[in-house]
């Protein structure tokens, strides 16, 4: 780290607790609003633990289709971890196979990061969740049980 980077980080450091609390507020809103929406699984925090929510990562069987739907609605999402770490070329020499990391392998095609940052307003959170709800309402048949994996058809 050079001196300029250190000076910038030193100026930002006092704001870190407030930014963390603001992201926790955004995450709590997402948690509440996404409860029982489609097949969405939200992040869980263990008892006696805290989370800084640098990312807010949901899981869904419809990750890629939901991502495309949200993109078309103007909502940015990110695939921060499109592949589980053990399966990157840098780790190929270990010879890992999916059964070595079954949970990571299972989730790598299901996780999606929603927008989260300290300045995010409740209206933005609500809009994101409403779009996610609309996605599941539009593509899930009534009383069909668990959400089915679907293909996204681009709207013209």
Structure explained in plain terms:
This protein has 156 residues and is mainly α. The protein has a domain at 49-140: Aspartate Aminotransferase, domain 1 (Alpha-Beta Complex). The protein has helices spanning 3-12, 16-34, 63-72, 102-107, 122-139, and strands at 56-59, 111-114. A two-stranded antiparallel ribbon has the order 1-2. α2 packs parallel to α5.
Number of strands: 2
CATH architecture of the domain at 49-140: Alpha-Beta Complex
Strand content: 5-15%
Radius of gyration: 18 Å
Largest sheet: 2 strands, antiparallel
Question: Structural class, please?
Answer: mainly alpha
Number of helices, where a helix is a run of at least 4 consecutive DSSP H or I residues? 5
CATH class placement of the domain at 49-140? Alpha Beta
- Shape descriptor reads globular
Average pLDDT, rounded to a whole number, is: 90
What name is given to the CATH topology of the domain at 49-140?
Aspartate Aminotransferase, domain 1
Helical fraction: 40-55%
Q: What's the order of the H and E elements?
A: HHEHHEH
Q: Which segments are poorly predicted (pLDDT under 50) over 5 or more consecutive residues?
A: 146-156
Kindly report the name of the CATH homologous superfamily of the domain at 49-140: Aspartate Aminotransferase, domain 1
Strand order of the largest sheet: 1-2
Distance between the termini: 48 Å
